[in-house]
Write a structure and sequence with these properties.
The protein is an alpha/beta fold and 293 residues long. The protein has two domains: 178 residues, 3-Layer(aba) Sandwich (D-Maltodextrin-Binding Protein, domain 2), CATH 3.40.190.10; 99 residues, Glycine betaine-binding periplasmic protein, domain 2 (D-Maltodextrin-Binding Protein, domain 2), CATH 3.40.190.100. Helices cover 38% and strands 22% of the residues. The strands form three sheets. The chain has a six-stranded mixed beta sheet with strand order 1-5-12-4-2-3, sandwiched between helices. The longest helix has 15 residues. The chain is globular, with a radius of gyration of 20 Å. It starts with a strand and ends in a 7-residue tail after the last helix.
Length: 293
């Protein structure tokens, strides 16, 4: 696995949307970012599009499935992607490309992933779910509501059903459809179990809890990295340095996702967050000042 170099952040700051510095691209530069439809991925992708459009880039966001994302980076169809969960969730997706794709610095620490229920549900573990599966009916049968079947969490949930011998079926749909079902059940205080992860805005809007996973089917927490096609760090050392300097806390990422959810518009929500957090973004951009043109 290739590891991109780390460039220390410079002390001087410059404003987002201002004239690009001498080390930023002098002319508009095309950049294709591969994305998926997870809430945090939508949030950070739209944030970086706004930031980089103001720094001389012409950014295209290309939404694809997880397998197509990794293959597209390996083929050079995309320049980079902003979300790689390691060491657990995305390990199998990365494995075929570990010697070609560049894995860069982490921007978010200690994720969560697993089966989630509202706090009013009086079970606390996946083994307890197995004993009370009949309480979690959806459309007439005991069900775990999940997201698209090509996602890592969907595969892990299939493994959990087998490992814990759960008498439930996983029903896969889009994340918005799953969240809509959770919202309806929550408002009626009905039992429901969904596949969910953090960072996610749902934990700010609802009182939820993970079911304990004693067999660690869902791992023990990941770190989120950004990653790119082979050779990207050499082709664009300025942006590599800037993205390596990027880091978000639970609070800052939660505020970004909540703003997007409340406005029901990823661009408008990201723009509002950006206007209120320019100092934080300027610190990331300042790292590029170490790069010689």
């Amino acid at each position: 696995m290739k590891k991109a170099f780390v460039v220390p952040a410079a002390a001087a700051l410059f404003a987002v949307g201002s004239t690009a510095s001498a080390v930023a691209p002098a002319q508009e530069k095309p950049l294709v970012i591969g994305t998926n439809n997870w809430a945090e991925n939508v949030a950070v992708a739209n944030l970086w599009k706004l930031v980089l459009d103001g720094q001389g880039y012409d950014v295209e966001l290309s939404d694809v499935g997880k397998s197509a994302l990794f293959a597209g980076l390996a083929n050079g169809d995309f320049d980079l992607s902003l979300e790689l969960w390691l060491p657990y969730t995305d390990k199998a997706f990365l494995e075929p490309y570990k010697d070609t794709l560049e894995v860069h610095d982490a921007w978010y620490d200690r994720t969560g992933l697993g089966l989630v229920v509202p706090s009013y549900v009086d079970i606390d573990s996946i083994p307890e779910l197995a004993k009370r599966a009949d309480e979690f009916e959806y459309q007439g049968s005991p069900t775990i509501l999940g997201i698209d079947p090509g996602s890592a969490i969907a595969g892990m949930t299939d493994d959990a059903i087998e490992t814990y011998d759960l008498p439930l079926n996983q029903v896969n749909s889009s994340e918005p459809a799953m969240m809509s079902a959770l919202d309806r059940a929550y408002k009626s205080e009905e039992p429901i179990v969904v596949t969910l992860w953090n960072p996610h805005w749902a934990f700010a809007d609802y009182d939820l809890k993970y079911l304990e996973d004693p067999e660690k089917v869902y791992g023990d927490g990941d770190t989120i990295y950004w990653f790119s096609r082979e050779g990207f760090s050499g082709d664009d050392p300025w942006l590599t340095a800037v993205l390596d300097a990027w880091h978000m806390s639970d609070e800052s990422l939660g505020e970004l996702m909540s703003e997007i959810e409340s406005q029901d518009d990823p661009v408008a929500g990201a723009r509002t967050w950006l206007e209120e957090n320019r100092d934080q973004v300027d610190e990331w951009l300042a790292a590029g000042e170490q790069i010689q043109p």
